[in-house]
Amino acid sequence: MATDFDADVIVIGSGVMGGIIAARVAKAGKKVIILESGPRVKRRDIVETYRNAPVKLSLANAKLQGVGSPYPSLPHSPSTYGDYLQQMGPVKFNTSYLRVVGGTTWHFGSALWRMIPNDFALKSKYGRGRDWPISYDELEPWYLQAEMDIGVTGTDGQDESGKGGAPYPPRSAPYPMPGLKPSHFMKKLMDRLTPGGFNPVLEASARATVPWKKRPICAGNNACNPVCPIAAKYDGSMSIDEAEGYGAQVLDNAVVHKIDVGDDRQISAIWYKRPDGSEHKLTAARYVMAAYAIESPKIMLLNKQKNAPNGIANSSDQVGRNLMDHTGISMNVMAKEDYWPGQGPTQLLTYVNNRDGDFRRDFPQYKIKVRNTTPVLSTTQKLLAKGLMGSELDAEIKRQSARSLNWAIDFETLPNPNNRVTPHPEKKDALGIPVPAIWYDVDDYWHAGKEQGLKDLYRIAELLDADVVSVDEGFQNRQHIMGTTIMGDDPADSVVDRDCRTHDHKNMFIAGTSVMPSSSCVNPTLTGAALSVRIAAEILKEI
Ligand SMILES: Cc1cc2nc3c(=O)[nH]c(=O)nc-3n(C[C@H](O)[C@H](O)[C@H](O)COP(=O)(O)OP(=O)(O)OC[C@H]3O[C@@H](n4cnc5c(N)ncnc54)[C@H](O)[C@@H]3O)c2cc1C
After folding, report:
1. What is the pLDDT of residue 65?
2. Would you say residue 228 lies in a domain?
3. Most buried residue, 22, 119, 132, 225, by CB count within 10 Å?
4. Nearest-CA neighbor of 346 among 230, 220, 201, 235?
């Protein structure tokens, strides 16, 4: 029990990363306080708001959440679904994240991949990007624990390198739950594409396939974005519930804005603002920054002071830099037979033929996925705009909805110090805290990947005997924010060390995908979660 401090550990941010750490540290009997800028939300309210929205917020129609997100956007904790993020660079980084108890995983797709060994050694193997200071083998046991904490389903025995060979990457135990089964739509696609050399990989995910803790089995509601109506899909609120069950205290509507550094360079206190503008101070033996890869660096850069003249943990000038995503492209095709997408999980079937090999010297690794969302709404809108009515409209809606397929590619991006997040010099939120400004661009390496990826997309259309309706080469954001508090052994060019502890302040850790030195092409949350489990163990060794 903390005596000199308000808590043993203060966690800033109640998402999956903060939640995992809080639950593990609280379970060990330590006093934990979690500070969350947003409010608590109830699943039934989010579902009802979504259900009652005049236009459904489907993937196809409203670009995930769009203007009508069913999650609250409050003046003290504004949603990113508006003009909150300020775009300063040539390529828009129009990402989204939620600011509520439980965080962004409330509406994530829940694909939970492991990276592969060479993703940790990109520089030494292929002369690109950066190496991690730790290897896949070192992270493997933590991956396993994170998969248990989150409750991951996966297909054992698959070659996730996409070569159609032996099981890969190496695992020390099977997935916690058996994998989801491909739907009729996916099986039919696999039948057409496998003979063309596309080896299907069914991605691991956080949708339960057997009853798991308090979660029921996924019923295929196909509403992972924006909310799983039956809580079969994991979200961060579940780890927060667990943490509270072990005695952790959650302060919601508590916006962290100030961090004090003592003469010994340790963090000495943090400050948060309430919606009424009042300021409050708390102290702890250890601090964990887990406000995700845009808010975390923003808060750190805002806090320049005598003992941290460049901002928190920023003696290397790397805080906020090396911003990465899986910037992507996509293609819509119209098939000549019915496939009927939209039943079951929103994503599962992927192709990763270009996941590893010498080609990575020349172009990035990438993942091709087919979206399993129903295009009924967008199809109907288009047909109504064309003036179709009555039985003709009905027949055409059925035909096109069964046959339109959307293929998307996620590319690995490299850490570039010029791609960065900073506090906006002028624009502030209702509490007077600067909003994030983002500068982002893609390099020739990405463009080389795009050229390869386009060839694959057209080949897929050919194998399906489908007509290409449109191709979007326009830097689509994939909602995977990485790199902005980068990990490394050298304090001169990285923010955290191999344990995710800041080089500058020994009592502060940073949890999440912001520490990743390479992005790979796969969804990053499981890697961030594995590192978070490791942070919890590190903290428990010390207090
Ligand atoms: C539409 C969508 C789909 C996605 N799908 C996938 C997927 O399929 N697979 C995958 O791996 N990843 C996916 N992601 C990414 C995934 O959601 C993130 O990697 C993950 O949520 C990051 O967890 P986190 O705990 O670091 O941050 P968050 O979940 O964002 O939690 C951070 C918390 O910090 C709080 N906070 C922020 N600022 C402050 C402050 N000043 N004071 C106090 N608290 C603060 C926020 O309110 C928030 O609750 C998706 C993201 C989106 C938007």
Report:
1. 46
2. yes
3. 22
4. 220
Q: Confidence band (pLDDT; 50, 70, 90) for 3?
A: low
253: left (phi over 0), alpha (psi -120 to 50) or beta: left
Question: Is 424 considered catalytic here?
Answer: no
Q: Which two tokens stand for residue 454?
A: 């386009």
Question: Is the whole model's pTM more than 0.85, yes or no?
Answer: yes
Residues 6 or more apart whose Cβ sits within 8 Å of residue 278: none
* C-beta 512 within 6 A of ligand 1: yes
Tell me the residue length of the chain: 543
Answer whether residue 84 is part of any domain: no
Quote the tokens at residue 383: 């047909």
For 37-64, the three-class secondary structure string (H helix, E strand, C coil) is: CCCCCCHHHHHHHHHHCCCCCCHHHHCC
| Cβ atoms of residues 221 and 47 within 8 Å | no
Mind listing the pLDDT tens digit for each residue in 187-196? 999 999 999 9
* CB-ligand 1 contact for 299 (6 Å cutoff): yes
CATH number for the domain spanning 450: value is 3.50.50.60
Is 220 within the bounds of a domain?
Answer: yes
Query: What tokens appear for 307 in the block?
Result: 């003992």
Q: Whose CA is nearest to atom 37 of ligand 1?
A: 291
Please name which of 17, 16, 541, 29 lies closest in space to residue 247, comparing C-alpha atoms. Answer: 29
Q: How far is CA 94 from CA 12, 217, 477, in A?
A: 24, 33, 6
Residue 200 maps to a domain: yes
Structure tokens at 415: 């850490």
Average pLDDT, integer, range 362-384: 92
Cα 518 off chain centre by: 14
- Among residues 76, 107, 480, 505, the one annotated as catalytic is 480
Q: What are phi and psi of 153, to 5 degrees?
A: -105, 145
Could you tell me which of 38, 41, 42, 34 has the C-alpha nearest to residue 9? Answer: 34
Percentage above 70 pLDDT, the chain: 97
What is the DSSP code (8-state) at residue 179? P
d(CA 443, CA 302): 29
Kindly report, residue by residue over 82-133, the tens digit of the pLDDT.
789 999 999 999 998 999 999 999 999 999 999 999 999 999 999 999 999 9
Ligand 1 centre distance from Cα of residue 77 (Å): 14
- How many domains are contained in the chain? 1
Confidence of residue 55 (pLDDT cuts 50, 70, 90): low
Q: Of 50-59, 317-326, 352-361, which range is least confident? A: 50-59
- Whether 78 is in the pocket of ligand 1, judged by its Cβ within 6 Å, is no
Best of 50, 98, 104 for a ligand 1 pocket test (most atoms within 8 Å of beta carbon): 104
Question: What domain range includes position 187?
Answer: 7-61+96-542
Tens-place pLDDT, residues 435-491: 999 999 999 999 999 999 999 999 999 999 999 999 999 899 999 999 999 999 999
